[in-house]
Amino acid sequence: xxxxxxxxxxxxxxxxxxxxxxxxxxLLRREGYRCVCVSDAASAMEQLRQHSFDxxxxxxxxxxxxxxxxxxxxxxxxxxxxLIVVTGVPTLPSAIESIRLGIADYLLKPVRVEDxxxxxxxxxxxxxxxxxxxxxxxxxxxxxGDLIGxxxxxxxxxxxxxxxxxxDANVLIRGESGxxxxxxxxxxxxxxxxxxxxxxxxxxxxxxxxxxESVLFGHVKGAFTGASQDxxxxxxxxxxxxxxxxxxxxxxxxxQGKLLRAVQEQTFLPVGGHTPRRINxxxxxxxxxxxxxxxxxxRFRQDLYYRLSVIPIxxxxxxxxxxxxxxLAEHLLRELAxxxxxxxxxxxxxxxxxxxxxxxxxxxxxxxxxEYAVALNTTDSIDLEDLPASLREGTASSVVxxxxxxxxxxxxxxPLVGATRTEVLATAESRYLELLMTSHRGNVSEAAxxxxxxxQGLHKLLKRYGIDPDAxxx
Length: 474
Ligand SMILES: Nc1ncnc2c1ncn2[C@@H]1O[C@H](COP(=O)(O)OP(=O)(O)OP(=O)(O)O)[C@@H](O)[C@H]1O
Hints:
This protein is an alpha/beta fold. The protein folds into four domains: 10-130, Rossmann fold (3-Layer(aba) Sandwich), CATH 3.40.50; 167-314, Rossmann fold; 323-397, Helicase, Ruva Protein, domain 3 (Orthogonal Bundle); 408-472, Arc Repressor Mutant, subunit A. The chain contains 18 helices and 16 strands. The strands form five sheets. Strands 2-1-3-4-5 form a five-stranded parallel beta sheet, sandwiched between helices. Strands 9-10-13-8-14 form a five-stranded parallel beta sheet, covered by helices on one side. A two-stranded antiparallel ribbon has the order 6-7. It is globular. 33% of the residues are buried. Bound molecules: adenosine-5'-triphosphate. GO terms for molecular function: ATP binding; sequence-specific DNA binding. One of its GO terms (biological process) is phosphorelay signal transduction system. Keywords: ATP-binding, Nucleotide-binding, Phosphoprotein, Transcription, Transcription regulation. Residues 10-124 form the Response regulatory domain. Residues 147-375 form the Sigma-54 factor interaction domain.
């Protein structure tokens, strides 16, 4: 059985019973599906974050899922991928909660082979019908795969994505935080001939410099104290697929030369190894930094920059494509509203406020806002009182205004007069983060919510500026 784009459909099976896992995996593979089997909820969530799947088959009682964590995570972030529950311990509360979270089916163990296959086929069939076609921009002007937006910059982006779908060239995506760099990278992967291969996210800010080489290239047994066996790195996992290097600008300089070899020659040496490993990988990278300035400043290798930016893509901030705000907000509302709240809508005053707001955290901030409003709302309309204070008061829109001809020293602190644009912006961002941390007393979750960033995204920024949240706790 294959999907509409002639690639085998991918099924994630999560169950802590080894026998069920093995036999179900074998059964579905025989039917032509590609299966990945994991035995706990954390591994399932990691797989879903890193790879594309068409369906999830999940047990309920398995490690890490006793409060249905996998189902909650799934309903929040990937509700368009159908999830079938297969449980040996059915309870009424778990069944009600599973259905509330929008599962596709609820099967009881021992499940008959024909029932399982019928349920899998039904769920995949529905997904195929609901799924936007490949390169959908011509027929559906306001979306391309999972990307939403009808503005001119988005139309231009869709045209580029369509044109490059036959290409295997490396891509460099730039844009502010939350503009959609990762979702664009996934879209490129899913529309490429590598679609059935892995899509591996490598977050350059998440790995300490000293571990980078081993995390990226792996190591051989005995390479260092504690290396008791050979270990594959993240690059080995991208073979046949796409490596997505997020925040490329943070890659330590010594690693840049090693990455260049992997990009150029498609080979690398695991730490302590002598035999080069060959890969077949496309590189898509993202950065919010001005990499050309980094090259000029000697912080980023020019040869690597040219290798990776064969196709450059610039993502516009949301404030520069305001006509997409309500389109995205309505889409997110449909995605995030609980089942049974299909009529939930924004009031006219809220729409006005959303369209006027500057969205410094871009689409991620908008998504966080919709989640917040959906969680607080008890009626069928999202009204002004459901908005967080920053949006109600429109604080982020009130920017310092500076008329043409004003002397720039009026708005710049003395030490920054004559500084470059990058230095001024970095100073402002670092100051903003300090104020944010002060007002939230070092609570990263709360601060991230206000800033419209993910916790991970805020951690990345804090790390970049050497700001320790613990120092703000009182
Ligand atoms: N055009 C879009 N259509 C639909 N959803 C979008 C769009 N752009 C972004 N999103 C959603 O906004 C959120 C943030 O997007 P994403 O993580 O891709 O941004 P990013 O630029 O990689 O952020 P960061 O730089 O902080 O890592 C995700 O939930 C993503 O699905």
